[in-house]
Amino acid sequence: QLKSVLRKGISIVISPEGTFNMTHQPLKEFYDGAFRIAIETQTPIKPILFLDAYDRNNYKNLFSLTPGKARIVYLKEVPVEGLSLKDVTTLKDMVYKIMEEKLIENIDYYINEQGYFVFTKAYHLKRGYCCGNDCKHCPWKDENINSNSELIDN
Question: pTM score, two decimals?
């Protein structure tokens, strides 16, 4: 039925990972279905990243949404013109790589209006210490430079 909807020009959203990501990786492994449908209908893929999904929608209760920011990143369209079902794995891997790279970028840093790289709180926590450079999203207070004993919520 999805194929008939796509043939009518109606957009659909498919989560290629099929469920919540419970791993420590940026993305869960993708299933073939979305890519197979895209190739069969010759419909380009328009990857989207929901950066705050964990904060807005708890995996323990699908119908429980929490208030707050919900950032979405729309990535460049991936054409499927001329691909056949033999190309499903290649297409899936290509889209995975595109999404993973952009997700890592948005998890660890973003580029501000002035073109500067700004490290996120997640990056600082992964690094494990304060560098003392007064970073915008540093989770440690100035008096805790080079110590992660007192976290603050940014």
Answer: 0.70
Of 38, 27, 50, nearest to 101 (Cα)? 27
Please provide the distance, in angstroms rounded to a whole number, between the alpha carbons at the two ends of the chain: 45
Question: How far, CA to CA in Å, does 118 sit from each of 11, 27, 110?
Answer: 34, 22, 5
d(CA 104, CA 101): 5
Helix (H) or strand (E) holding 111: strand 109-111
Q: What is the pLDDT of residues 17-55, one digit of tens each?
A: 988 777 767 788 999 999 999 999 999 999 999 887 766
pLDDT tens across 88-106, in order? 999 999 999 999 998 887 7
